[in-house]
Amino acid sequence: DAKTTQPNSMESNEEEPVHLPCNHSTISGTDYIHWYRQLPSQGPEYVIHGLTSNVNNRMASLAIAEDRKSSTLILHRATLRDAAVYYCILRPDYSGGGADGLTFGKGTHLIIQP
Amino acid sequence: EPEVTQTPSHQVTQMGQEVILRCVPISNHLYFYWYRQILGQKVEFLVSFYNNEISEKSEIFDDQFSVERPDGSNFTLKIRSTKLEDSAMYFCASRAGTGRRMNTEAFFGQGTRLTVV
Q1: A54-to-A11, B16, B18, B86 alpha-carbon distances in Å
Q2: pLDDT for residue B94 is more than 50
Q3: Rounded to an integer, what distance in angstroms lies between the CA atom of residue A24 and that of residue B52?
Q4: Above 70 in pLDDT, residue B113?
Q5: Which of A40, A113, B26, B45 is the most exposed place for a label (fewest CB within 10 A)?
Q6: Which of A49, A94, A96 has the CB atom closest to B105's CB atom?
Q7: What is the reported pLDDT for A96?
Q8: Cα–Cα dist A38/A12, whole Å
Q9: CA distance B95 to B50
Q10: Shortest CA distance to A110 belongs to which of A61, A75, A65?
Q11: Residue B92 in this model has a pLDDT that exceeds 60
């Protein structure tokens, strides 16, 4: 999988927007950008994914740079429950005979202050 | 909302013993996975399973590990002879979709904490 780079940690205040950056300068044209998060003592949880266009769902928004070398996960109004480790992962659209499992990095530890 | 279920939530075993970790994936999913997370470390991929066979495995998944889908609903991970370093959280995951397209999300269970003493 192509490599991603994320800050080790970020801090935000409750009820404020949070922008979590991810750099993926070696992304290929068919790589999807996936975001997962892991709340304390829980399994990873899917958040959102996209290819080229910005995406919105009930949990978050994903803003993808025009050159696709970076992306930003946006939590519009953070709550204490959003405190988690957030992982940015690239997935090829079709892996052929290659890798199928997700490759998790260290992610960004998001701290929410009340 | 459908979910991936893992049992037990915590398993303690003696070194050298065999353990079986159980998972019930989401019913219409086709791809199944095991991951592990040693305390304080990254989530690591172990194995993927599709069409009743292993499709990919990592270096961690050596001969001590095996997976099985015995009855069309359960998906198990067996560790034949546990070592102290096998102590970790083990997560099962499943994914829908046909073919190998990677634009569908994986759903993870809550994990089984394995403690080898």
Answers
A1: 24, 50, 47, 40
A2: yes
A3: 34
A4: yes
A5: A40
A6: A49
A7: 52
A8: 17
A9: 10
A10: A75
A11: yes
Q: Which chain A residue has its CA at the smallest distance from B99's CA?
A: A94
In sequence order, the 6+-apart residues with CB closer than 8 A to the CB of B91 are: A43, A44, B6, B34, B35, B36, B37, B43, B108, B109, B111
Question: Quick one: pLDDT at residue A98?
Answer: 44
Residue of chain B whose Cα is closest to the Cα of A104: B43
Distance (Å) from the alpha carbon of B22 to chain A's nearest alpha carbon: 15
B108 touches chain A (CB under 8 A): yes
Give the model confidence (pLDDT) of A27-64 as tens digits: 988 889 999 999 999 999 999 999 999 999 999 999 99
The whole-angstrom separation of Cα B107 and Cα A40 is: 17
Query: Would you say B106 and B49 are in contact if contact means Cβ atoms under 8 Å apart?
Result: no
Instruction: Return the structure tokens found at B23.
Output: 């998972």
Residues B24-37 have pLDDT tens digits of 999 989 899 999 99
Residues of chain B neighbouring A6 (CB-CB closer than 8 A): none
The sign of the CA dihedral A60, B91, B12, A109 is: negative
Cβ–Cβ gap A101/B100 under 8 Å: no
In angstroms, what separates the C-alpha of B48 from chain A's closest C-alpha? 6
Q: Would you put residue A59 in left (φ > 0), alpha (ψ -120 to 50) or beta?
A: alpha
**Contact: A101, B45; criterion CB under 8 Å:** yes
